[in-house]
Amino acid sequence: MKKILVFTQIREEKVEENTLSLLNKLQEVFKDVEITAALFGKQIKEDWIQELGKHGVKKVYAINALELEVYLSRPYVKTMLEIIKETQPMMVIASGMVYGEDLIPRLAVHHGVSCAQRVVDFTLDGEDILFHTPVRDDQAIMITKLKGEIKFATTRTGAFFINENPTGGSPEIASIDVSFEPKDMIVSHVEIKKAERTVNLKDAKVIVAAGRGVGGKDNFQIIRELAELLGGEIGATRACTDVHWIEETYEIGQTGQSVSPDLYIGAGISGAPQHMSGIKAKTIIAINTDEGAPIFNYADYGIVGDMHSILPILKKKLEG
Ligand SMILES: Cc1cc2nc3c(=O)[nH]c(=O)nc-3n(C[C@H](O)[C@H](O)[C@H](O)COP(=O)(O)OP(=O)(O)OC[C@H]3O[C@@H](n4cnc5c(N)ncnc54)[C@H](O)[C@@H]3O)c2cc1C
Predict the structure, then answer these.
(1) Residue spans per domain, the chain
(2) Model's pTM, two decimal places?
(3) Among 138, 156, 289, residue to substitute to test ligand 1 (most atoms within 8 Å of Cβ)
(4) Domains 2-185 and 206-319 in one fold
(5) Which architecture characterizes domain 2-185 according to CATH?
(6) What are the CA-CA distances from residue 194 to residues 41, 96, 151, 301 (Å)?
(7) pLDDT band at residue 137, thresholds of 50, 70 and 90?
(8) What top-level class would CATH report for the domain 206-319?
(9) Which residues contact 221 (CB under 8 A, 6 or more apart)?
(10) What is the pLDDT of residues 153-175, one digit of tens each?
């Protein structure tokens, strides 16, 4: 059976959500393909292996080594190359988090082939895989085929949905022999320093976002209140962060964060592709005075009107 090898990324002691959503997407597109995962660390947790199994991975190469405690290019590349040699997958892929984006192109270079990066969709053309990648500020999609026995790709963060009810079972656990020499360890890890202020929009189930139509810094108060009532986070467009109505960490879109909430409420936002490309929401509600605003093309529910009148009504309703 053909295999796809997925590089697993761990964040804050959990399998990263973009890895899980990638697993879901792969199973949707590729039938009769066995998904194998590579999982590295100093002390791999059984929970991570089981989580991968639940999300459809049949076999996990769980490689424990001191040298694999944190991501470093050389030891990770070396270990992946051994697994690729053993498994001969049709594709090697990782979600486009920073480590995957470093690792996968290096593996492609080792095989003398190219790599599709920041993919947002896959389709099949007979036996060929078509990789869909946004280009030109997300205003176009480039579709590519890759040459070579093994395809290499990374995916864009927030591009796919997680299967909320995964039904997979316990995966087989595999290992390989890999040893590291001083030349593999030319970079040493010092520490990972957390940013002083972090906004976790990526994991938010509800986002109430505002655009230029909010009209000023103080008007973000109602956005905050609504987000709080809905148990969510606030978000913003670049039009707001550029003029410092709100910190940059709240920006959503091409240069901001990619988000995939269940509910996204966008008020006073025109719906520019650079903003909307960062949103993969189950439900989008848009509030805008201009009935021709592009955001209504993305919205499941649209309200044409002044956000300054509509949001207080919504707040009152939610307060009961
Ligand atoms: C390379 C590049 C990267 C970019 N990356 C990003 C990015 O990551 N994220 C991002 O957001 N943008 C990004 N942008 C900017 C993007 O192109 C848009 O300019 C921006 O998203 C517009 O923000 P906006 O919708 O808030 O403002 P506008 O486009 O000015 O829209 C404001 C909207 O509010 C409506 N409105 C006004 N008053 C009210 C009211 N009282 N009630 C209701 N509606 C009202 C108006 O009808 C209008 O539709 C990028 C641009 C470039 C060139």
Answers:
(1) 2-185, 206-319
(2) 0.70
(3) 289
(4) yes
(5) 3-Layer(aba) Sandwich (3.40)
(6) 20, 20, 34, 38
(7) low
(8) alpha beta
(9) none
(10) 999 877 888 999 999 999 999 99
